[in-house]
Amino acid sequence: MISLLDLEAITARLEPRFGKGAHRWVPKLPGRVAAIAQEWGLTVGAEFKSGNSSVVLRCDHASGPAILKLSPDSYAVREETEMLRQFAPSGRVPAVLAADRGAVLLEAVHPGALVEKLATPPTPEEYAAFLTDLHSSGDPDSAPRKLVDWLEVLFSSAAKRGADLTSSRALRDELLAEPTEDVLLHGDLHLGNVLTSDRKGLVAIDPMACVGDPCFDAVDYVLEGLDRAEMLRRRDALAAAAGVDAGRLDAWCRVTAPIGATHVSNPGHSAELAAFGRGEY
């Protein structure tokens, strides 16, 4: 299966992120995968759908089904590996089975359905338990960045897509000025980064870890409600189930809603997110 990698398609997918670096890295990929497979005792299978920063392959390992992830960005892979190990005591992330420069082997999550694709989303109680477990593990001092710095990255990207962030920036500053408990945050907990597991319940993947207010990791569950009533229902129920301040969760939702409004493809959902960000409800 290694020889069946579509190197042309992989190059086209990675080029927007890595430029000429993708053209240097991709031709070496089959040899790299073959060497890792021999070293780690893997039977490599089909390529798994992934984004524009990595190549992800299904494989079999002595411990069972696994996922091999490789990227030209070895620093990002190392950071992800370290943060998954930080979150490991929570039982809410895939186990790291092996790691090397630019590559990491993770246990496969079964059934591994994306929560954003589920016909029935997790209940607020289920999601609150997931967040509580995740935030109860890991050393905040190990975080590679602060929440304020990660927000600047998100704001910068959203501004290029036309987001109005005037209110978001002001409200962010108010929230950050208030003392609160800091935890190790996943940092990018949209529901495409949350999978279903028959052993672990909800499982988080692809952390962009940072240190900050635990409410921040809760906002996507709220904002991925498709209409106003569902967003408000999720906000209030999740705050109660997780034991977090509902006003603070609402404020973080209003900070990030304009960012989400530039991402979603559903025009009605985008309009609702923009209205949430403007404080219309």
UniProtKB/TrEMBL annotation:
Superkingdom assignment: Bacteria
UniProt KW Translocase keyword: no
Coiled-coil segments: none
UniProt xrefs under InterPro entries: Kinase-like_dom_sf (IPR011009), NH2Glyco/OHUrea_AB-resist_kin (IPR006748)
GO biological processes: secondary metabolic process
Catalytic activity, EC: 2.7.1.72
Pfam families: APH_6_hur
Keywords assigned by UniProt, alphabetized: Kinase, Transferase
GO molecular function, one term: aminoglycoside 6-kinase activity
Name under which the protein is recorded: Streptomycin 6-kinase
